[in-house]
Design brief:
Two copies of one chain form a homodimer. Chain A is of the alpha+beta class. Chain A has helices at 3-6, 8-18, 63-79, 100-117, 166-177, 184-194, 200-209, 222-233, 248-253, 260-264, 280-286; strands at residues 25-27, 34-37, 42-51, 84-94, 120-128, 133-141, 157-161, 212-218, 235-240, 270-275, 294-302, 307-310, 316-317. At the A-B interface, α1, α2, β2, β3 and β4 of A face α1, α2, β2, β3 and β4 of B.
């Protein structure tokens, strides 16, 4: 069945019926606005836009994976504040010749991660569109003051969760070889690209312990997001290539590109955070509760020293960093 | 200057600087998420999507008017719940060859209405896109239980604020004659289309008085939105054409189309609500505080009687109602 047969209200009704009534949702899908409990007297909200041909390509992603990832990237933003997610508001522009089954697969991907992370879909909007696009808005809570990008000081250690570059390398493999790309390493890298893990537990644990001074999620590539932290915190940074955490699959598959994807690849959805040097032992103590390994990859320096990457031979490396800019670059 | 020259981060920085720091905004634009006070332990959130070529046409609207209207339609959703708005989260997909000045005009339209209605822009997302589109998400508060679409009972009176059909007739004039369309009536109707007035005071006052039993904003046309109320409330309705509130400009300009736009036109952003018959006098008492006239246009009947429109000769009229459906119809 095509979407134009089901109709807008038919689609909304299907979504409503497929959506569990979440805790604290007084009025969810189906009215002019949603009415929600607010556990504490503050809440957090974040919004992300994903557009076909820009943020994703339907040649290389399933609708299910796209739904999953849509929510994951928003949860990652909340994780980077040390917050826990609660509600999702989702707006979709959908080409009229899309199949309803595909749209339902998309929502299934959303629901799987939503249920796993305690998120209730509470509203949104849909419209016909020439290209498929998605706007997701997530509301969350934090028991303490959220961790911003702006709290790092010269002398702080810089840490990152998980491993870097897997997602960008996975995307490259997808483009070159398609989703069926043979070996186990490739499958791992592609799954890191398609099903990123928002580091909610790590983010909330670091915030609760009060030791993360600045935090951001690595979505545009390590160097780009590090630049955001440095700018907001008015510090510089030194990064040691030797210390960058890489998966075994990455080491095997990266080949001549070496650390390119780990430094500038993007879509890692790991957390980059700074820590007082004297809190190293406290980080070790809470380490297991983060549910993901962390690696110390550098240090903050005075702003005038800028950002330096030290290569494996101990030499500062020339940077062609910079990040993906939606208005300047074309993927 | 074109947007691709300014760049994404440049644009965000400009918006941030142009945005007043709203009350209760602990962290606004510029971090991974915004951190907000929640005055009561509940809040409301609504989201609306506007797409070039579907919801608006840049031939017939200025960027300023488009910004204004983007916020107005979201505020209207909150008004229909009896809520007051507080925060706006805005996502934009923008063609790279748009002029920065135009985008700034858009935000100026947003800010004018935001400042007038006590709304703080607190975040969002931007991306390149082939077509211009907008997703706006508004969070609001309500001192009492919000008024839904589902509370009308057979025997209730049906009321509407303001006048109906102006906006749709204004759009027709815009299409036929362009924005400079001559006389005062035309100018009035076009301005009703371009600068709708969200009925925030009326909605909140009706909710606070506890007399509106069901409420919706008329965005898809009276009969379509009435259908939503009837479905959610499990009632039918009788509407008297004679009682429909029309502006003098509408009466003059509608010509042979008569009540067509008032019944099915859409984009009125007036409130349709139901009331116990015995609360008529209470409505009169609070009437002035609504800041907009209200008209009794019909009554709720048992669901099995469906929806009937009684024409001026007292005859039930055949309905070719129905609503605009984004996936079925093309404007």
């Amino acid at each position: 069945m095509q979407l134009k047969e089901l109709g807008e209200f038919g689609l909304i009704e299907r979504i409503r019926q497929a959506t569990p009534r979440g805790r604290g949702v007084r009025i969810g899908i189906g009215d002019d606005a949603a009415w929600l409990d607010c556990r504490n007297r503050t809440f957090l909200i974040t919004s992300d836009l994903l557009i076909e041909g820009i943020h994703f390509n339907l040649k290389w992603t399933s609708f299910y994976a796209l739904g999953y990832k849509t929510l994951a990237v928003n949860l990652s933003d909340l994780a980077a504040m040390g917050a826990s997610p609660a509600y999702l508001i989702l707006s979709l522009g959908i080409p009229v010749d899309f199949r309803v089954e595909d749209v339902e697969q998309f929502y299934r991907g959303i629901r799987v991660l939503a249920s796993r992370s305690g998120v209730a879909l509470v509203g949104g909007d849909t419209s016909a569109s020439t290209r498929f696009f998605i706007n997701a808005c997530v509301v969350g809570h934090s028991a303490q003051r959220p961790v911003t990008r702006g709290g790092a000081k010269a002398g702080d250690d810089l840490y990152v969760t998980g491993t870097l570059g897997d997602s960008a390398l996975g995307m490259k493999l997808l483009k070159e070889r398609g989703a069926r790309a043979g070996n186990r390493n490739h499958a791992y890298l592609i799954s890191r690209h398609r099903f990123p893990s928002p580091r909610l537990t790590a983010g909330a644990t670091l915030a609760r312990a009060g030791i993360a001074r600045a935090m951001i999620d690595v979505s545009d590539g390590l160097l780009q997001d590090l630049t955001h932290v440095c700018k907001a915190s008015r510090v510089g940074a030194v990064i040691w290539e030797e210390a960058l955490p890489l998966s075994r699959a990455y080491r095997t598959a990266a080949g001549k590109k070496g650390l390119l994807y780990a430094l500038t690849g993007g879509e890692d959805y790991e957390l980059l955070f700074s820590l007082r040097r004297r809190d190293r032992s406290r980080l070790e103590t809470i380490g297991r509760r983060l549910t993901v390994p962390v690696a110390r990859i550098g240090t903050c320096v005075p702003a005038r020293e800028g950002i330096t990457v030290i290569n494996r031979r101990g030499r500062p490396q020339a940077l062609s960093t910079a990040g993906f800019d939606h208005f300047r670059d074309r993927r």
